[in-house]
Amino acid sequence: MALLVVGLLGGCADGPGAGEGGGGGGAALLRGFSVQVDEAVAAKVPAVHLKVCGDWGCHEQDVTLLISGPTSAAPCRSGDGAADVCGVVRLPGPGPGYGYAPVPQLTPDPVTVTVTTPPGAPLAIAAELTVRAPVVCQGRPAREEGCADGVPQATLRIAADATVSQVG
């Protein structure tokens, strides 16, 4: 059974979309979109094409989506036989899908987002929606108003019925 080691260093989850804390510990926040896919259809949506258009023009990209299966603690190797937890191991199995699409031009102004699946994908998705990306602040609570170092980030959710919506 192949295991994928996801994070061996403490604080690996401290980045964009890692919770309610807008990041800390020095990792720069990225402008763009996180994409979440409901567990019921995650295996049917391996990738999406994202087109984002605003006053600044359009940005297009393919976004590979991964499946977040169950996790387990990874023991440390030590000479004294102690079994301390040293990381997280992602096990094969069903789970929600996820991905990230950086959009360097993104601003907090409304943009039009088009999400499609490639031809022949197991689940056809063709959605267009208007999104306003809230500003996320570095080292401060997510979506806090009035930070000079904030960057726009938004989350798109693909539901089991193939609809796409903005989260939050």
Task: Outline the secondary-structure elements.
Elements: E1 4-7, E2 32-37, E3 47-54, E4 57-64, E5 66-67, E6 71-75, E7 85-90, E8 97-102, E9 111-116, E10 126-131, E11 135-136, E12 151-158, E13 164-167
Parallel strand pairs: 2-12
Antiparallel strand pairs: 1-7, 2-8, 3-4, 3-9, 5-8, 6-7, 9-10, 11-12, 12-13
Features of the shown structure:
four-stranded antiparallel beta sheet, 0% helix, mainly beta, 13 strands, 168 residues, Immunoglobulin-like, six-stranded mixed beta sheet
Overview in brief:
The protein is built from no helices and 13 strands.
**Which H/E pattern describes the elements?**
EEEEEEEEEEEEE
CATH first level: which class?
Mainly Beta
Structural domain tally: 1
Q: How many distinct helices?
A: 0
Helical fraction = under 10%
What is the total tally of β strands?
Answer: 13
Look at the helices and sheets and give the structural class.
mainly beta
**What's the CATH topology label?**
Immunoglobulin-like
Mean pLDDT: 79
Distance between the termini: 37 Å
Polypeptide structure, described:
With 168 residues, this protein is an all-beta fold. It has one domain: Immunoglobulin-like. The chain is 0% helix and 42% strand. The chain has no helices and 13 strands. It has strands spanning 4-7, 32-37, 47-54, 57-64, 66-67, 71-75, 85-90, 97-102, 111-116, 126-131, 135-136, 151-158, 164-167. Strands 2, 5, 8, 11, 12 and 13 form a six-stranded mixed sheet that branches. A hairpin with a 2-residue loop joins strand 3 (47-54) and strand 4 (57-64). The chain is flat, with a radius of gyration of 18 Å. The chain starts with a strand and ends with a strand.
